[in-house]
Amino acid sequence: MKNILKAFVAGAMVLSAVSCADFLNRPSEDSYTLANYYQTDEQCIQGVNYLYCSPWYDCIRFYIYGSETMCGNVYQGQNAYTTLTVNGTDKDLKNLSYSLWAVNAHCNTVINNILGSEGPSQSVKNQCIGECLTWKAMAYFLLVRTFGDVPIIHDNTEIIKESAYNEVSKVQKADVYDYIVLTLEKALELLPKNPYIGQYNRIDYYAAKALLSKVYLTKAGVSGALSSGDLAAAKSYAEDVILNSGRSLTPKYSDVFRLSPSVYQQTGEALISWLWTSTSGIWTCQNSIQSDVGCTGFDEFGDLWGDWKGPSVDLQDDFGVSAADNPLNRVNTDDRRQATIMMFGDKYDYFWQDKGGFDFYRFFYDSDYASGTSGGWQCVSGANYAKHLYGNGSDHVKELGVSADNMTNQLPTHILRLSDIYLVYAEAAFLTGDKDTALEYVNKVRERANAAPLESVTFDDIWKERRLELALEGDRWYDYVRRSYYDMDACINELLNQRRSYWDGLGAAYKDFVQDDDGKYVGPGAHTWDGSNIVYNPVQDLKSVTPSMFTLPFPTEDVVLNPKVASDAEPVHVDVRETYSYNF
Questions:
Q1: In contact, 493 and 480? CB cutoff 8 Å
Q2: Please, are residues 370 and 360 in contact by the beta-carbon 8 Å criterion?
Q3: Confidence (pTM)
Q4: How far apart are CA 255 and CA 267, in angstroms?
Q5: CB under 8 Å, gap of 24 or more: what pairs does 248-255 form?
Q6: Does residue 294 register a pLDDT over 80?
Q7: How far, in Å, CA of 93 to CA of 109, rounded?
Q8: For the segment 469-506, what is each residue's pLDDT rounded down to a tens digit?
Q9: Cα distances (Å, whole numbers) of residue 497 to 314, 500, 503, 523
């Protein structure tokens, strides 16, 4: 399989710049070999740093657009993600697959390198191997939820030695989940319990345990019916993280998505994150998401093209707002709306701080305020991204003391947060009959967002809360996948009833509202608001959803080289604990 083979080869090499994440003191050496690296505690730690960014880079576009479009959170026109008809030739899907296999390969290789080293202390070796195992588990967690049955590559070296890479079979997804559990259990044996609060966050014991709780909630339904044992495990592990990790929710929701670790990580909410760097000079170590989702002219680097794609009408509906209404009358009942979705009329004090804040009335329509924009409203869904934006170059320097650049910034991308684990805990509690705990933790999440507390809780309340809390963070499609294991009809019905299409007439109404007859920006009220010509056009709403759409196909080039990974190929059963072990 071409992509997987590439990952094997990449994983069998030590990168010429082992540590591309300068947040952990990148060493000054120009190149490394196994003979002169992994010899000290510092080198051992630095040898793991790049696993927090570089191998994950090619996941980005699937993460921000592919999965978020499939679940109905994002509008990006009529494409295969909108219609749930993605095939094996899709570029972003291929990049996702390659990236995840690369993560697995690199983790396996770094583990072997550390095991073969003699200089580092045992405690540091344990810590670093535990981090590698957690990243490996995360890669498989994404693989199995995306592709269903997938091969298990426990050791790249053995596969290459046996030249067996074109003969590996898919393994039944239930067994893959068991393998993820096995991997995380070993990570828990090795990782330290000290939380990373107020600083860039390495993976620790409780981060791995948090991931394990979410894995158990997901695998609970894989047999077609919910497993009480798996739900109990999900609840137990989540409870331990919540009560004993020393972490709490960041008081202000929007602070979770800021640049500085002293802001986003002030209480340790970020459990597992991609930690990017803007100063390494190595492509794939940087965050470039703002380029994909930001509007032209939002920063000064000429690298933005996200004007016409944005949060969906359906997501706005769940937040209780509409792009078709007078923006002066908009009422936010939840802080998460504006921190997630940028709508006409929104203002942000943490973007464009050198200009006194960012004003989304003026941005498109006042050339004195924002030069270089596209000159008018572009996104027909009525919204743009607010998450994943860092602001302009001045914002980046103010928060971190280093510059951003073209397609390069250092904003962390959070893959697992404590609020997610609160909701995992709530859902597992609800499904095991503990409604009081479920209500308590849903309301803790809502309280942080200044949303009104619920007086009682249903499964649908928890389901919706996950959407609002984690929107645009690459999670919602995978909620549908795990629920489809045991409640397919509910997933299909919900997707069919989403508003995934667009508005006609937004641009004209917005322009008229803030510009006078000569086209000069006046501000809200230049003309009386008139939304009478704004009409929802349902042309891109889903007409059909089938069970097969919840599993994506392997890249076509992989299937050509190895038919055993084709969609219709039978997966094999593997007794994971009899077949695999981590004997170190």
A1: no
A2: no
A3: 0.95
A4: 11
A5: 248/418, 249/418, 249/419, 249/422, 249/444, 249/445, 249/448, 250/448, 251/448, 252/335, 252/448, 253/335, 253/336, 253/339, 253/448, 253/449, 254/335, 254/338, 254/339, 254/350
A6: yes
A7: 24
A8: 999 999 999 999 999 999 999 999 999 999 999 999 99
A9: 9, 9, 17, 36
The partner residues of 413 in beta bridges, in order of sequence, read 274
Alpha helices in 156-195 (DSSP H): 156-161, 173-190
Residue 284 burial (CB count, 10 A): 17
pLDDT at 449: 98
**In this prediction, what percent of the chain has a pLDDT beyond 90?**
89
Nearest-CA neighbor of 427 among 489, 469, 387, 471? Answer: 469
CA 477 → CA 88, 127, 148, 171, distances in Å? 18, 32, 13, 22
Give 373-428 as a 3 state SS string.
CCCCCCCCCCCEECCCCCCCHHHHHHHHCCCCECCEECCCEEEEEHHHHHHHHHHH
Q: Check: CB of residue 270 under 8 Å from CB of residue 414.
A: yes
Q: Around Cβ 168, how many Cβ atoms within 10 Å?
A: 18
Q: How far apart are CA 385 and CA 245, in angstroms?
A: 32
Cβ pair 381, 498 in contact under 8 A: no
Cβ contact 11:104 at 8 Å: yes
